[in-house]
């Protein structure tokens, strides 16, 4: 099977190729999706903050147009990144997930955070450069730990007030400076449900459709403590048997993968594959 999507720093002076148009509200789409002819997009009179070459899709160069905001284009509408994750071609989602990360970085680094002068895009690497300060700014990745806690045939699931009604998921949180992945996991579990864990094992990772976010997935066993929910963060948390689970996260998410993997192993079923 051929590789459909690869990232690369491309010179925006080259002609042709494909392009995606992005703003804070999402991606421009038409009936064929979010990948457009670059030349066609250029002809739409869009207010473009910056353009970045981000890679190749099916052998064609792909460019990102970061826009000032939503703009009307005949026959097109706007769609959030999460919808692409839950629906359609996962290879397209990978293109758009990467584009969204680069778009956020490019928008946030148009000016130097030290002196306020306009930044220059470096052609040969993914960096913005401030000549007066001699500073380079690279895309930022924020690691987040997500963990499935198990107790035999039971798994600990919780729901946030921000979740879709009725849906329960695994616990997660962002790493603090100086923390290891394991330290972050232990702290987040204590904060959210006041439970202790042991036998922490890394399972896999997934780029999440939020700015800079990389989800590192773990499995851990229950070591002690009673569930005490963190106010304002956890609406409900319970132990569920693997044969009596509540509504779960979307099937393409790493949270769902962690759950499905453990259920498969306890039930003797074929193990799922993490989309990526």
From TrEMBL:
Primary enzyme class: hydrolase
Catalytic activity of the protein: NADH + H2O = reduced beta-nicotinamide D-ribonucleotide + AMP + 2 H(+); NAD(+) + H2O = beta-nicotinamide D-ribonucleotide + AMP + 2 H(+); a 5'-end NAD(+)-phospho-ribonucleoside in mRNA + H2O = a 5'-end phospho-adenosine-phospho-ribonucleoside in mRNA + beta-nicotinamide D-ribonucleotide + 2 H(+)
State the UniProt keywords alphabetically: Hydrolase, Magnesium, Manganese, Metal-binding, NAD, Zinc
Pfam families referenced in this protein's UniProt entry, alphabetically = NUDIX, NUDIX-like, Zn_ribbon_NUD
Q: Record-annotated residues binding substrate?
A: 82, 125, 138, 206-213, 255
What cofactors does the UniProt entry give for this protein? Zn(2+); Mg(2+); Mn(2+)
Q: Which residues bind a divalent metal cation 2?
A: 188
* All residue ranges annotated as the Nudix hydrolase domain in the record: 139-262
- Annotated Gene3D superfamilies: 3.90.79.20, Nucleoside Triphosphate Pyrophosphohydrolase
A cellular component term from Gene Ontology for this protein is: cytosol
What molecular function terms (GO) are annotated for this protein? Answer: magnesium ion binding; manganese ion binding; NAD+ diphosphatase activity; NADH pyrophosphatase activity; zinc ion binding
Which residues make up the binding site for a divalent metal cation 1? Answer: 172, 192, 233
Explain how, and how many, cofactor molecules are bound.
Binds 1 zinc ion per subunit.
User: Highest taxon of the source?
Assistant: Bacteria
Q: Where does a divalent metal cation 3 bind?
A: 188, 192, 233
InterPro entries noted in UniProt: NAD-cap_RNA_hydrolase_NudC, NADH_PPase-like_N, NudC-like_C, NUDIX_hydrolase-like_dom_sf, NUDIX_hydrolase_dom, RNA_Hydrolase_NudC, Znr_NADH_PPase
Signal sequence interval, chain numbering: none
Q: Matching CDD domains, A to Z?
A: NUDIX_NADH_pyrophosphatase_Nudt13
Q: Where is this motif: Nudix box?
A: 173-194
- Write out the residues that bind Zn(2+): 112, 115, 130, 133
- Give a short account of what the protein does: mRNA decapping enzyme that specifically removes the nicotinamide adenine dinucleotide (NAD) cap from a subset of mRNAs by hydrolyzing the diphosphate linkage to produce nicotinamide mononucleotide (NMN) and 5' monophosphate mRNA. The NAD-cap is present at the 5'-end of some mRNAs and stabilizes RNA against 5'-processing. Has preference for mRNAs with a 5'-end purine. Catalyzes the hydrolysis of a broad range of dinucleotide pyrophosphates.
Regarding protein family, the annotation reads:
Belongs to the Nudix hydrolase family. NudC subfamily.
The protein, known as: NAD-capped RNA hydrolase NudC
């Amino acid at each position: 099977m051929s590789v459909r999507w690869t990232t690369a720093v491309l010179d925006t002076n080259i002609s042709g190729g494909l392009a995606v148009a992005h703003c804070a509200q999402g991606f421009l789409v038409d009936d064929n999706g979010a990948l457009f002819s670059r030349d066609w997009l250029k002809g739409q009179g869009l207010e473009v903050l910056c353009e970045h070459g981000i890679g190749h899709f099916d052998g064609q160069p792909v460019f990102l147009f970061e826009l000032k905001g939503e703009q009307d284009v005949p026959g097109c509408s706007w769609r959030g990144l999460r919808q692409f994750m839950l629906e359609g071609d996962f290879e397209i989602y990978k293109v758009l997930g990467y584009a969204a990360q680069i778009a956020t970085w490019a928008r946030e680094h148009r000016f130097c955070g030290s002196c306020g002068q306009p930044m220059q895009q470096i052609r040969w690497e993914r960096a913005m450069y401030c000549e007066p300060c001699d500073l380079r700014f690279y895309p930022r990745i924020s690691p987040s730990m997500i963990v499935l806690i198990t107790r035999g045939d039971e798994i600990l699931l919780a729901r946030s007030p921000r979740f879709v009604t009725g849906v329960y998921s695994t616990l997660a949180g962002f790493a603090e400076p100086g923390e290891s992945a394991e330290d972050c996991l232990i702290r987040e579990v204590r904060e959210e449900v006041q439970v202790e864990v042991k036998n922490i094992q890394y399972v896999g990772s997934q780029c999440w459709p939020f700015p800079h976010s990389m989800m590192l997935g773990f499995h851990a066993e229950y070591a002690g403590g009673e569930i005490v929910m963190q106010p304002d963060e956890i609406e409900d948390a319970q132990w569920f048997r693997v044969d009596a689970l509540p509504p779960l996260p979307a099937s393409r998410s790493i949270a769902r993968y962690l759950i499905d993997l453990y259920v498969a192993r306890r039930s003797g079923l074929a193990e799922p594959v993490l989309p990526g």
